Amino acid sequence: MKSSVIVFPGSNCDRDIAIALEKMQFKNQMVWHKETKLPKTDLIVVPGGFSYGDYLRSGAIAGKSFIIDEVIKAANLGCLVLGICNGFQILTETGLLKGTLLKNKNLKFINKDVNLKVMNNYTRFTNKYKKEKILKINIAHNEGNFFTDANHIEELKKENLIAFKYCDEKGNINEDSNPNGSLDNIAGIFNTNKNILGMMPHPERMVDELISNKDGVNLFSSLFN
Questions:
Q1: Is the dihedral of CA 58, 60, 61, 62 positive or negative?
Q2: pLDDT, tens digit, for every residue of 66-123?
Q3: Model's pTM, two decimal places?
Q4: Is 77 exposed, middle or buried (0-12, 13-18, 19+ CB in 10 A)?
Q5: What residues are annotated to the active site?
Q6: Which CATH number do you get for residue 24?
Q7: What are phi and psi of 65, to 5 degrees?
Q8: I need a labelling partner for 174 at 20 to 30 A (CA). Which of 4, 37, 57, 147 fits?
């Protein structure tokens, strides 16, 4: 399976995701933001980091880069797209995902491991997880507070488009287990066709017991299933 990781000035998780993909046997290529053509690929990853130093707002400038036009075209044709952290922010800037990511409720940068509950395991990204499986995944963001309008929230629930929610170790979803103020504890969402996943936590950091855990492995192995 072939993957392409988009690289922007300020990206700092592009190499992390590349290593994770290669570990999971993807044939990966790095694609510079000024390119105007994508290589033939099965999966496009928009990585985490601070593209363009988060000037204007997170993801705003990256969302106007040359390669993003090709990402949008590929996504609309059904190519799998994964946006992680800043990548999630970029996907909302492009309109590939609805909603936005606001500043964390405590107005501080957060970097810690949190618990997530798998809300939908019937997708190309999550089919190797059990439904309601509790994962421990790292977050590292200043603008991870997911917000959208009431109609979109209802659509997310009705169409089963919520991928992950923040929870505690026992799986309880409540204000205490919400690290950033996201509506309904949402940590990741799909588009209507479920070929695009945006998530704030970093699964690429959880693929090796030596440095963390392997709770992110099944996201990548799901894509081969």
A1: positive
A2: 999 999 999 999 999 999 999 999 999 999 999 999 999 999 999 999 999 999 999 9
A3: 0.97
A4: exposed
A5: 85, 202, 204
A6: 3.40.50.880
A7: -70, 160
A8: 57
